[in-house]
Amino acid sequence: MKNKPLRVTDLAWEFLRPVLKPGDTVVDATAGTGQDTLFLRQCVGESGRVFAFDIQAVALQQTKSLLDNSKSVDNVTLICDSHEFIMTRLIDAEIEEGSVKAVMFNLGYFPGGDPAIITKVETTIKALSSALRLLSTGGMMTICLYPGHPGGAEEAQAVIGWGEMLEAPFVAHHFQTLNRKSPPTLVIIQRTR
Ligand SMILES: C[S@@+](CC[C@H](N)C(=O)[O-])C[C@H]1O[C@@H](n2cnc3c(N)ncnc32)[C@H](O)[C@@H]1O
Asked: Which residues have CB under 8 Å from 118's CB, separation 6+?
């Protein structure tokens, strides 16, 4: 961290860390390389449950090997499907609405993969709205936005507009760097009651 600019992915972890407890149920809505899935798994421990979505099998393979290397795959369910189906997939796993402590979205494309396979406005907003219903009281959703790639600015605007419209018991925050061109930004949603 020393001498390096803060990254939205690190900020998301710092906000989530004090919220998460052993035994919590959590979701990584965009598994990618698996870094966030592993972080969530470490926070909720062996008694927690982690669900990780990605539309690309290659991303879930990478996530699985990261978890295997950390000997932590036992309570992680990897789902090769779009996060727009988050609600049905969790209900199928007997997870109830209002019982998920955290949902992480890290939008954009698979690092090192095909930059044409990206998260899209319509499915992202659908997934975010479903994820809200899953969130427990005291729960938190983190959304890392990357306006610098094609389609990213449109998606970031849509997510920020969606957050601005949320009503109680949700509180929406937006954290951004001021002096860089198209910097990644972080939206956080809290459910306060
Ligand atoms: C920026 S990466 C995620 C990085 C990841 N959290 C990590 O720790 O490495 C975005 C991921 O979203 C995935 N993705 C794109 N559209 C998706 C969708 N509709 N549902 C779920 N995942 C999707 C991509 O395949 C890609 O792996």
From this structure: 107, 108, 109, 149, 151, 152
Q: Domain containing 153: what range? A: 8-191
The rounded distance, in Å, linking the Cα atoms of 120 and 12 is 21
- Point out the ligand 1 atom lying closest to the alpha carbon of residue 123: 19
Look at the chain and report how many structural domains it folds into: 1
Ligand 1: residue whose CA is nearest its atom 9: 33
- Looking at residue 84, what DSSP letter applies? G
Burial class (CB in 10 A: 0-12, 13-18, 19+), 187: buried
Taking the centre of ligand 1 as the mean of its atom positions, its distance from the CA of residue 27, in whole angstroms, is: 13
Instruction: Look at 67 and 1; give whichever has higher pLDDT.
Output: 67
Model confidence over 97-127: pLDDT tens digits? 999 999 999 999 998 889 899 999 999 999 9
